[in-house]
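Record now logged for everyone:
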Amino acid sequence: MNDILLNLIVLVVFAALGLLLFIFLQNRKKQKDAQFIQMAKEKGWEVERIQQPLLSGYRVRGRNTACEWTIESLAEASPRDAGPGSSEVGLSTRWWTKDVALADRGLVFGPVNNPGDAQMLASMGGAMFSKVIHGLLGEDADWAADLALVNAGSDQFRQKYLCLASEKEDAIRVLQPGIEKLMLALADRHRVVIKLTPAGLEIRIPTEQMLDRTSLDLMVNLGTAIVEIWLGSR
């Protein structure tokens, strides 16, 4: 068997394996999408499929006794050329409602990499503080850098989240035991950013496109609980 024939056989084998992998992944995605749509219908949620040249995913709308809310679970491709053999795709999932908001201030809870992050941030200032906040919060850091780091919540909570606020009382008002429990449960599965601003309440998973029932239920239950606490304590 000459080298040319051997190389052709190898190429055919790899092409076949690649095709089989592609088919497997496509079937798996279709199965996950079907399970997600079925779950949403069972809960009475309104599901909108998003399919654009650079954007794909789902927009889900629901309501309960506390508020009307929306979830977006998206994959967004960069319009820039990422180079041969590579691509830039941003994944995100966010829950939000406009039924509760802060008129003139902000409150944000974000993930910490280790329990010492908050103490480290407290000793920083200026550009270094902004840089570290950007590493923890991503795009949410642009406005959160103007807030103050506050010490709020239980010891267990502070091992998972840092808190930035215009007024510490807002953080204390939100961090009731039931809400802490939901936030910790979500943090065990994902890196979470929660913010309450003049635009409303948002819970964001900035690096994942989530479709699983457990995580989405946690987001909905957490958002609902925050709305109920906030409106009930006015």
Remarks:
- The longest strand covers residues 68-77.
